[in-house]
Amino acid sequence: MGPGFSPLDEALGLSGSRYSPRLQGWVVRLGADVPFARAAFWLHELCGITLSAATVRRQTEAVGASAVARAEAEVAQLERTALAPPVHPERLVLGADGAMVPLVGGEWAEVKLLSIGEPAAGSGASCASS
Fold first, then answer.
1. What is the mean pLDDT of the chain?
2. 22, 29, 51, 62: which sits with the fewest CB atoms below 10 Å from its CB?
3. No. of H helices and E strands in the chain?
4. How many whole angstroms separate alpha carbon 11 and alpha carbon 71?
């Protein structure tokens, strides 16, 4: 039987590793959670797998670097394709009103209404700047 193939390993740049994807996942998860020497200890204690703290560090940092590179590439892509923020108008026109509405049980209550909009050109809706 030949070596296995993992698309995620290839996407993360981890192909060619001598460790199985499962073992590498354990190493990286432990290495990200506890000190590298402690991760090596727990791998040996729980699974009988002997790795040095330096190996745990290298594997963990390699996956971390791949994750950072992918995140930075996604941010760059979003920055290239993101829509420009909307241009805010120089002035807004506000209008407020109230109305009485019937509620369940025959009671009435007042509701407040607020409308916000841009003044139309030539509408005479100008305000003194403060």
1. 86
2. 22
3. 4, 2
4. 13
Q: How far apart are CA 39 and CA 51, in angstroms?
A: 9
Three state DSSP letters for 86-128: CCCCCCCEEEEEEEEEECCCCCEEEEEEEEEECCCCCCCCCCC
Say which amino acid occupies 19: Y
What the block records as the tokens of 119 is: 């003044």
Residues 60, 68: Cα–Cα separation, whole Å:
12
Question: pLDDT tier at 12 (50, 70, 90 boundaries)?
Answer: low
* Separation CA 32–CA 91 (nearest Å): 52
